[in-house]
Amino acid sequence: MQLSFNNFNIQPLKPSDAWPLCNFISANDDRLKRYFPKTLQENLTPDLAKRFTDKKVKQSQLKEEFLFTIKEKESNDIAGLVYIKELNWITKKAEFAYCIGYQFEGKGITTKSVELLSNYAFDVLGLKTLEIIVHKDNLASVAVAKNNNFTWIKTLKNEHTPPNEAPLDMELYELYDEVE
Which among 85, 98, 122 is positioned nearest to 10, based on CA atoms? Predict the structure, then answer.
């Protein structure tokens, strides 16, 4: 599976992505530490990234969680990541989590990736509800949700605890598959 737009490809994470993933994480560690602390910790070295990549590929095969890379077509460098996680196949619900490299921020890449992967989640995976959980001060992430027609549902009290911080309230946005 590959989705394309402008100068970018979206693909499921694959074993050969371990080294580029480690490079992406290292270059963006400061951006990732608050909302992606586990991903950051699990990709600090090439060996850790290899284990992480192998684990995520297996989770994808088992349909437990999907991790996609957003790659620049010309360089094949990872520009960002999009997770489809917290899958519930009974209720057909899942959550998006996403991050973009600092040099790609503010260009609509994450918004377009979430749009394309929302269609994939509805049309191919058969999901009916997609969620985005974001801190209200993360304005770029809130914009991704709003630009993709996700609806604010409620505030989730003490939903996320970043490393060395107090728990944060997070905002829940949802998008529904309207096609029946």
Answer: 98
Q: Looking at the domain that runs over 3-176, which CATH code has it been given? A: 3.40.630.30
Tell me the two tokens of residue 18.
Answer: 């371990």
81 pLDDT higher than 80: yes
**What are the phi and psi torsion angles at 22 (to 5°)?**
-60, -45
User: Per-residue pLDDT averaged across 13-34, rounded?
Assistant: 94
Question: How far apart, in Å, are the Cα atoms of 60 and each of 7, 134, 141, 175?
Answer: 25, 24, 24, 22
Q: Are 114 and 120 in contact (CB under 8 A)?
A: no
Torsion (CA) 124, 38, 42, 71 in degrees, nearest 10: 40
HSE-CB for 159 with a 13 A CA cutoff? 14
Which amino acid would we find at residue 162? P
* Sheet with 3-5, side-by-side order of all strands: 3-5, 8-12, 66-72, 78-88, 93-100, 129-134, 168-176, 151-160
In this predicted structure, the answer to whether residue 117 has a pLDDT above a threshold of 80 is yes
What's the start-to-end Cα distance of the chain, in Å? 24
Enclosing H/E stretch for 14? none
